Amino acid sequence: MKIPIIIDDNGNPTQNNEFLKTNVIDAYENRLKQNKIDSEKYNILIEELKDQIFLITDDYSANDFIIRVDEFNHIGNSKALASKLLSEKAKSLDLDFNKETKKYEKLATA
User: Fold this and answer.
1) Fewer beta carbons within 10 Å, N or C terminal of the chain?
2) Which residues pair with 97 in a beta bridge?
3) Which stretches of the chain are assigned E, i.e. beta strand?
4) 53-87 per-position pLDDT tens digit
């Protein structure tokens, strides 16, 4: 970043001092605006994932969600959160994840 010289040899200003405003403050404000937009997109995505997981009722729909989860445009940790929510939903439905087949299965009844 180049810092402009805005005074002459006698210490008199030669131009307005806009360096901090344009290079620091404006950049910070733009980043805050972008963070707000990103946060809104993230929240919409998380709600969509929650809605999709809510609709899971059995092993078939859980496995279907596993196939479709990569089709979402994930932001940040959204995929990890979807995995956690899916795991909780599967547990509530007495489903077990088979690590060999990478699919949910109904728990065997005794």
Assistant:
1) C
2) 104
3) 95-98, 103-106
4) 999 999 999 999 999 999 999 999 999 999 999 99
